[in-house]
């Protein structure tokens, strides 16, 4: 780690990432967006503190042993651009959700709710949307009928 990093810096990074993860677990897209931004800034600080500090890396002006490490700076610049693009994408989704529904909360998926209800009632879905016969359907796992198991000696 760099000599400029201290305990307060790492506590600040931990607080940023911790608050970001907490916000990321919310249902509101605006809070998810704030969580992404906080996590991105925390990780960027961690990368910056991981590099060697020093003078500006300009050849001919600074001696090579006193130059700062440029790789973390390049990585952070790339991460800033990626975070900016992701932020713009989440803002667009959040605005679209607010425009269509009046809020930016992520609703439960209807199919997920149906699956939960079926699981609570211990029902099995009988819909086969593939259209292929059961013999050639690789996703269909049929349990042999009780009379077939008796004939085969399985149970």
TrEMBL record:
Protein location: Cell membrane
UniProt keywords, alphabetically: Cell membrane, Membrane, Transmembrane, Transmembrane helix
InterPro entries to which the protein is assigned, alphabetical: CPA3_antiporter_subunitC (IPR050601), NUOK/Mnh_C1-like (IPR039428)
Disordered: region residues: 122-155
Gene3D superfamilies from the UniProt entry: 1.10.287.3510
GO CC terms of this entry: plasma membrane
Taxonomy, superkingdom: Bacteria
Membrane topology annotation: Multi-pass membrane protein
Main localisation: membrane
Family per record: Belongs to the CPA3 antiporters (TC 2.A.63) subunit C family.
PANTHER family: ANTIPORTER SUBUNIT MNHC2-RELATED
Protein name, per record: Na(+)/H(+) antiporter subunit C
């Amino acid at each position: 780690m760099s000599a400029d990093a201290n305990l307060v810096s790492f506590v600040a990074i931990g607080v940023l990432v911790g608050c970001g993860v907490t916000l990321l677990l919310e249902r509101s897209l605006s809070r998810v967006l704030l969580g992404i931004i906080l996590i991105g800034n925390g990780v960027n600080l961690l990368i910056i503190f991981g590099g060697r500090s020093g003078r500006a890396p300009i050849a001919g002006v600074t001696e090579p042993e006193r130059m700062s490490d440029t790789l973390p700076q390049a990585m952070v610049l790339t991460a800033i651009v990626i975070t900016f693009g992701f932020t713009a994408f989440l803002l667009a989704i959040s605005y679209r959700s607010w425009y269509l529904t009046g809020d930016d909360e992520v609703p439960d998926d209807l199919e997920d709710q149906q699956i939960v209800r079926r699981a609570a009632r211990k029902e099995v879905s009988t819909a086969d949307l593939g259209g292929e016969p059961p013999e050639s359907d690789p996703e269909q796992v049929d349990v042999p009928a009780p009379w077939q198991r008796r004939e085969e000696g399985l149970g």
